Amino acid sequence: MLIRRLGPLWTCAALALASPALADDGYGLWLGSAREQGASVPVDWTSDSPTLRIAAEELRRSLPAGSRPVLLARADDAALAGQRIDRQALGTEGYRVQHATIGGRAVTLVTGATDLGILYGAFALLRHLDSGGDPANIALASAPQTRLRILNHWDNLDGVVERGYSGQSLWDWWTLPDFKDPRYADYARANASIGINGTVLNNVNAKAESLTAPYIAKAAALADVFRAYGIKVYLSARFSAPIEIGGLKTADPRDPAVAAWWKAKADEIYRAIPDFGGFLVKANSEGQPGPRDYGASHADGANMLASAVKPHGGIVMWRAFVYADTDPEDRAKQAYTEFEPLDGQFADNVLVQVKNGAIDFQPREPFHPLFGAMPKTPLIAEFQITKEYLGFATHLAYLGPMFEEVLDAPTGARRGETVASVITGKADGHTLSGMAGVANIGRDRDWSGSTFNQANWYVFGRLAWDPGLSSQALAREWAVQTFGSDPMVIGTVVAMMMRSREAVVDYTGPLGLAHLFATGHHYGPGPWVSDLARPEWNPVYYHRADRNGIGFDRTRTGSNAVAQYAPPIARRYADPRTTPLEDLLWFHHLPWDYRLADGRTLWEEMVRRYDRGVAEVAAMRAQWATLKSRIDAERWTKTDTFLAIQQREARWWRDASLAYWMSVNGLELPAGSKAPEHGLEHYKQLRFPYAPGNPH
Ligand code: BDP
């Protein structure tokens, strides 16, 4: 009765195990490389479903010899009557895994209120064992803290992934719906193993064609593959689709014909995909159409779509990432200004999707002021897993600490409230809640462009499940499953990971600087750029450096963006003395010779941090070198090569940036700091017309 699917995940796992010297191409992700082949431990289940069969197969194949037999059973199964399972605590997706004696037989019981909960429990059991958990002491229980744990694919219909650095889109729209690449199931399996339960298939910069019958059929084919893994399909909806593919003259959300078109479209989608999740919408942002084109509000637009999917149980995720070229206001303020007044006006199946920071996925941004400011609206946090501003796929930057920093940030709105408590719905009693991540997945053999980028997919899923988990513990959990249990490997890898994101901050833009990237592709430095059509596209808009000082004054004497935060936070950010150094120039324009608490000048500290970032990459590379004989050659060599690229490029970032700052402030480098390798003009004329991920 067990299904047989001996996919490539298992094949490469078997190969990788034979010896660390043998090639491992990374296809197995955290589920393959370090895992022993199982000993066919007996697994029984009390009812049948495709989901339970997947759970059984996972366990049977991977549980180590000598494990107890496993019983998979729903919590309400009569066989568990004596087990005193707290069904309330399970929710709909939670699990419980424990040793039990059932019908006189000693088993490991994996239970949940639903089959999906049981599948999550099966993965939790394997994770427990893979990461060194005691097989004799099994008592695992967990339920997700958010309802929507969802990937956003910025995948275009032609296969190009916007801000994608791992090859073409995984979805082969051309051969769908007929050909269902086995990789689609492997994708779903990997997601289920970390609790991800939704995927938006197409780019937020959406094409209306995604909503035509042929593409609905293609999306339905993917949904058919994903269903047993508990993954729902969502689509990005182009707001002007009623005009482009519906033959209407307007997309005004208040026009009954427009509403009727969307209702009919939703009905059509649900006929093909009965468990369709709903729509994600980018409206009136960066040239996308939206309700503002007709003088209607974002709430009008979102609610009209929400009522179309409501009868089917669908939801709408409406993005707050808006800024307008006609708006002279500080870009960091615009989303709040537009959305905060709409709190209370959204339908109950709408979530407003808010990026982690107020500008745009920079290596560091203070948390977005909308968190804590819209208590009547469920907010879903949007993080970028793909590293558009952190060195693409090549640089090693573990994003766990960045996600954690934002999730743990107190909003100041109420005692104890954090971004995490807002997005789990706990702060305001919302049942809709969630975390979205812009996927870093493509058709590269290793899925994410490098082994370490896989960790960012992993940590996103695990934190979306429980934002209270520690990014360090998750780094370890990932590393053991990915590389095996050699303590020297794990210690080194985790240490590298935990410092890696700060290193990128240091060499790209320390002390709260942001948006210093070269035009369009965002690859490499461009702090000098000042000639783009919209002011807020230019790095000079963000750093405001001149002979006297640097930084964006967002206090009362400047844009007063600090006032968008709740009073305790606003007070802290209003004063450079109480603003964390990490965010200093985000909020303040300060003289180059401004004295920091430790006695250094701002300029000295800035240079020190650029140097520290470069040194950190050199250190990571040296640490990686010590693992050469302990990691399979293929993954070791690729990582080593990428670290060499990162080292070169960290130096480039530092040199180009310092050359530019010196051209502005006329200062010398502090003693002991190396002069940039080239003059400023050299850096300014570098061009990368074919950098990946850049929309054309
Ligand atoms: C920016 C990207 C752009 C996206 C936009 C968005 O550069 O490609 O379309 O975000 O989130 O970071 O909509």
Automatic annotation (TrEMBL):
<dbReference type="InterPro" id="IPR011100">
    <property type="entry name" value="Glyco_hydro_67_cat"/>
</dbReference>
<dbReference type="Pfam" id="PF03648">
    <property type="entry name" value="Glyco_hydro_67N"/>
</dbReference>
<feature type="domain" description="Glycosyl hydrolase family 67 catalytic">
    <location>
        <begin position="135"/>
        <end position="447"/>
    </location>
</feature>
<feature type="domain" description="Glycosyl hydrolase family 67 C-terminal">
    <location>
        <begin position="449"/>
        <end position="672"/>
    </location>
</feature>
<dbReference type="InterPro" id="IPR011099">
    <property type="entry name" value="Glyco_hydro_67_C"/>
</dbReference>
<dbReference type="InterPro" id="IPR017853">
    <property type="entry name" value="GH"/>
</dbReference>
<keyword id="KW-0378">Hydrolase</keyword>
<feature type="active site" description="Proton acceptor">
    <location>
        <position position="388"/>
    </location>
</feature>
<feature type="signal peptide">
    <location>
        <begin position="1"/>
        <end position="23"/>
    </location>
</feature>
<dbReference type="InterPro" id="IPR005154">
    <property type="entry name" value="Glyco_hydro_67_aGlcAse_N"/>
</dbReference>
<feature type="active site" description="Proton acceptor">
    <location>
        <position position="360"/>
    </location>
</feature>
<dbReference type="InterPro" id="IPR029018">
    <property type="entry name" value="Hex-like_dom2"/>
</dbReference>
<dbReference type="InterPro" id="IPR011395">
    <property type="entry name" value="Glyco_hydro_67_aGlcAse"/>
</dbReference>
<keyword id="KW-0732">Signal</keyword>
<dbReference type="GO" id="GO:0005576">
    <property type="term" value="C:extracellular region"/>
</dbReference>
<feature type="domain" description="Alpha glucuronidase N-terminal">
    <location>
        <begin position="67"/>
        <end position="125"/>
    </location>
</feature>
<dbReference type="Pfam" id="PF07477">
    <property type="entry name" value="Glyco_hydro_67C"/>
</dbReference>
<comment type="similarity">
    <text>Belongs to the glycosyl hydrolase 67 family.</text>
</comment>
<keyword id="KW-0624">Polysaccharide degradation</keyword>
<dbReference type="Pfam" id="PF07488">
    <property type="entry name" value="Glyco_hydro_67M"/>
</dbReference>
<dbReference type="InterPro" id="IPR037054">
    <property type="entry name" value="A-glucoronidase_C_sf"/>
</dbReference>
<dbReference type="GO" id="GO:0045493">
    <property type="term" value="P:xylan catabolic process"/>
</dbReference>
<dbReference type="GO" id="GO:0046559">
    <property type="term" value="F:alpha-glucuronidase activity"/>
</dbReference>
<keyword id="KW-0858">Xylan degradation</keyword>
<dbReference type="GO" id="GO:0033939">
    <property type="term" value="F:xylan alpha-1,2-glucuronosidase activity"/>
</dbReference>
<protein>
    <recommendedName>
        <fullName>Xylan alpha-1,2-glucuronidase</fullName>
        <ecNumber>3.2.1.131</ecNumber>
    </recommendedName>
</protein>
<comment type="subunit">
    <text>Homodimer.</text>
</comment>
<keyword id="KW-0326">Glycosidase</keyword>
<feature type="active site" description="Proton donor">
    <location>
        <position position="286"/>
    </location>
</feature>
<keyword id="KW-0119">Carbohydrate metabolism</keyword>
